[in-house]
Amino acid sequence: MNHKALLLWIFLQCASALLSSAAGENAVLKGEDSGLDEFSTEGTTLNGEIKYNMRKSLDMEQEGCYLLTGKKDRLEECGFNATAKTIFIIHGWTISGMFENWMFKLVSAVMQRESGANVVVVDWIPMAQQLYPDAVNHTHTVGLDIATMLNWLQDEEQLPLQKVHLIGYSLGAHVAGYAGMYVRGTIGRITGLDPAGPMFEGTEEQWRLSPDDADFVDVLHTYTREALGVSIGIQQPVGDIDIYPNGGDVQPGCGLSDVLAVAGDFMAVMKCEHERAVHLFVDSLMNKDHMSYAYQCTGPDRFKKGICLSCRKNRCNHIGYNARKMRKRRNSKMYLKTRADTPFGGYHYQMKMHVFNRKQSDNADPTFLVKLYGAHNDTANIFVDVYDNTIGLNLTNTFLVFTEQDIGDLLKIRLSWEGNSNTWGSVWKNLKKTLWSWNTTSTSIPVLQVRRIRVKAGETQKKFTFCAQDPSKTEISPGESITFVKCRDGWEVKPRKRLPM
């Protein structure tokens, strides 16, 4: 085994803790905290290694019913309805041999949202409970077996494939892709929840989930950070739309301090981010009052600058279960920010402001904060995240501002320039400026001018312009603030008419 392969093997063994929990609080079997039943006492396919457990009740203590290809009596016994939606849920790699807690949550959410649907859990744990490369090799077999089941349902019950939805997590996403490739006809939809990266990244389409595997393939990527040259979740786009919450990188609430305080396990940090795709999908099923939007963008850098908040020409979409089929456009990358916990949806604002240099403040490098005043609520001070770390002077600067709560119609904005000692960031900036100008004698206070702020709300697509409340107060220095109120200066006030989401 060469050095790189050894590092990969070590990484995969460490990652096993994230892809499958140890027995205990994360196990989802019969018992006081089980949630789901064992799903493993009925039916035999491929020597009993693949089972199709059709859930019949929200009471997870009930066993459910097992479908078996070629056994029509099982369809009658399970109450399979070929005219209803059919939703298959497919797990990924495991070393514990148990269903994890996310399975209970996902099955429960699907059944509550689609009470008349056929909800089937695909249990391939004996084949998934292997060394990771062996489990990868089995995904092909499991996908083919699902396709065989669907073909039989088409023959026996005239099952319309357009009403079939496969939901696969991690390795299960690629299993769903194989099923879509081998089935006779075209499956209606496949959802990939952070599809596994190792041994799939960069491969040809026939060896992984791809847009051709269903009429509509939507994918959530939540853990695309590399370690030892590989990423637990696949980085490349593999669907019709590929959504990267928080850039597909660091997920809020999954930081080291956040997770260690609860789990006390470093691997739980990795698990939190990989599994976040499942919880975002569950959130989309359960929280219909505010459905999260994602916005098409060429990359995370432009999105962080606030450039990509348009819904024109299908450039935005709901995420998770509420995602709508779009005109075939392969690999459309979309981005959004989320909260740290459910409900995950928040509110995106694009802000543009022209910063004029006054009094030769070339080295001003301000740290700005904004406070938004709304019809319902006001925000706290929000740090203006300047992606390239520099405010452009005598230039129009564009920023993305994200709020966790619905503040209603935006009424007023307060822009503040942090003083030299407000935060560690300001202290560091001030120290650098002091070192840079060590030999200069200038002690003048930097002065910048901001006359107006233009705002676009991502969720409503409304645009507004805000002008200084006091026309004589447009200049700002460290420790000062300016208040802006709505005004008109040429930007459209009403949103463009667009199709309902």
UniProtKB/TrEMBL annotation:
UniProt keyword list: Calcium, Disulfide bond, Glycoprotein, Heparin-binding, Hydrolase, Lipid degradation, Lipid metabolism, Metal-binding, Secreted, Signal
Annotated InterPro entries: AB_hydrolase_fold, Lipase, Lipase_LIPH, Lipase_N, Lipo_Lipase, PLAT/LH2_dom, PLAT/LH2_dom_sf, TAG_lipase
Alphabetized CDD domains for the sequence: Pancreat_lipase_like
GO biological process terms on file: lipid catabolic process
Catalytic activity: a triacylglycerol + H2O = a diacylglycerol + a fatty acid + H(+)
PLAT domain boundaries: 347-486
Keyword Signal: yes
Database matches in Pfam families: Lipase, PLAT
Record bears the keyword Heme: no
Residues annotated as binding Ca(2+): E205, R208, D213
Active site, per annotation: S170, D194, H274
Entry EC no(s): 3.1.1.3
GO annotation, cellular component aspect: extracellular space
Major enzyme class: hydrolase
Descriptive protein name: triacylglycerol lipase
